[in-house]
């Protein structure tokens, strides 16, 4: 008699824990009919255990990823091993609203789910258990950390004055494009843009005006960047662009548009109107160049040619007629 009472007490405690534990518990039979639906699932779905018991999971919740989830469950039945679904793999299986005050910015509950095989008295795997964990806090914290990391990485790669890539990371792009050309031999060009007479502007109006001029040119330059173009500050008053899938002729056309827009534009400094011009050099990468440094040298030669040709012009090597 005492043993029977102890057993009943243990059963009562187990039922109480199943209903009050802060994880979701769902038991399904081989046909995916619901045999157990605990208090956590009731609280978040609004569906009571008595109302849902015996119903097919996918018929009651048609929004579930049925084919994908069934494949997961079938592997548990077949292999008799547990399976795990991470929120990073799929943010949720059951789309429950998020009510946590700490992570109020999340619209829904992020979930980790464990699928466990349940054996009958004969040892056959007759049921499967779904354990649903609310990991919203962890997921939001991780995404926030990743966002901060992305911003920090972007900050470390960005030139503070122009908001283009800084010299170090732009040169990494030069190296990358050189390696891609060596492998695929697809056309790629480099453009160097140098502000004309910046020293005189610094001397006459001050270095702040010079910085404003560099920002002004960078702002116009960014308007001309295509999705595949990569702009950076090579140093001082010199900006650069990597032009993927672009030959000498197309690069020249793009450079002329940039030069013309800069020539026609103006900015205000200390209630004065300031206009600047730029000189631009271009070189399309070819097989004769055996290093990225050689490529940079060729672009620098083209830029020097633009300067000695009177500035405010575009020059390429070899020259375009």
Please render the helix and strand layout as text.
Layout: H1 2-20, E1 24-29, E2 34-37, H2 39-45, H3 49-52, H4 57-60, H5 66-79, E3 83-85, E4 111-119, E5 125-134, H6 136-157, H7 167-184, E6 188-195, H8 198-205, H9 207-224, E7 229-235, E8 238-244, H10 248-264, E9 267-269, E10 272-274, E11 278-284, H11 292-308, E12 314-317
Strand-pairing-aware structural class: alpha+beta
**Distance between the ends:** 107 Å
What value does the average pLDDT take? 88
Based on Cα principal axes, name the global outline.
elongated
In short:
This protein has two domains: 2-142, PAS domain (Beta-Lactamase, 2-Layer Sandwich), CATH 3.30.450; 158-317, Alpha-Beta Plaits, CATH 3.30.70.270.
Describe the model.
The structure is a single chain. The model has no long low-confidence stretch (mean pLDDT 88). With 321 residues, the chain is α+β, with helices and mostly antiparallel strands. It has 2 domains: 2-142, PAS domain (Beta-Lactamase), CATH 3.30.450; 158-317, Alpha-Beta Plaits (2-Layer Sandwich), CATH 3.30.70.270. The relative contact order is 0.09. The protein has 11 helices and 12 strands. InterPro entries: Diguanylate_Cyclase (IPR050469), GGDEF_dom (IPR000160), Nucleotide_cyclase (IPR029787), PAS (IPR000014), PAS-like_dom_sf (IPR035965), Rev_trsase/Diguanyl_cyclase (IPR043128). Residues 186-319 form the GGDEF domain. It is an enzyme of class 2 (transferase).
């Amino acid at each position: 008699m005492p043993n029977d009472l102890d057993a009943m007490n243990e059963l009562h405690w187990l039922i109480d824990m199943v209903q009050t534990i802060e994880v979701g518990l769902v038991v399904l039979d081989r046909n995916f009919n619901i045999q157990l639906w605990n208090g956590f699932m009731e609280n978040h779905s609004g569906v009571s255990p008595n109302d849902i018991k015996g119903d097919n999971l996918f018929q009651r919740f048609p929004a579930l990823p049925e084919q994908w989830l069934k494949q997961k469950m079938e592997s548990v039945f077949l292999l008799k091993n547990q399976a795990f679904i991470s929120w990073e793999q799929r943010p949720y299986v059951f789309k429950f609203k998020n009510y946590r005050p700490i992570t109020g910015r999340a619209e829904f509950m992020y979930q980790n789910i464990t699928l466990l095989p349940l054996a009958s008295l004969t040892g056959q795997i007759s049921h499967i258990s779904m354990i649903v964990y609310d990991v919203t806090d962890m997921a939001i914290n991780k995404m926030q950390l990743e966002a901060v990391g992305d911003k920090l990485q972007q900050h470390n790669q960005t030139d503070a004055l122009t908001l283009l890539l800084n010299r170090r990371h732009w040169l990494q792009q030069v190296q990358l494009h050189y390696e891609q050309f060596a492998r695929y031999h697809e056309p790629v060009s480099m453009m160097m843009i140098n502000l004309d007479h910046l020293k005189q502007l610094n001397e006459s109006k001050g270095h702040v005006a010079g910085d404003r001029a560099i920002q002004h040119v960078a702002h116009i330059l960014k308007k001309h960047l295509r999705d595949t173009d990569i702009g950076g500050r090579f140093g001082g008053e010199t900006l650069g662009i990597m032009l993927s899938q672009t030959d000498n002729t197309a690069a020249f056309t793009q450079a002329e548009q940039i030069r013309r827009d800069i020539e026609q534009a103006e900015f205000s400094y200390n209630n004065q109107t300031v206009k600047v011009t730029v000189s631009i050099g271009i070189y399309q990468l070819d097989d004769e160049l055996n290093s990225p440094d050689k490529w940079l040298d060729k672009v620098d030669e083209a830029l020097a040619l633009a300067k000695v040709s009177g500035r405010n012009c575009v020059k390429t090597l070899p020259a375009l007629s």
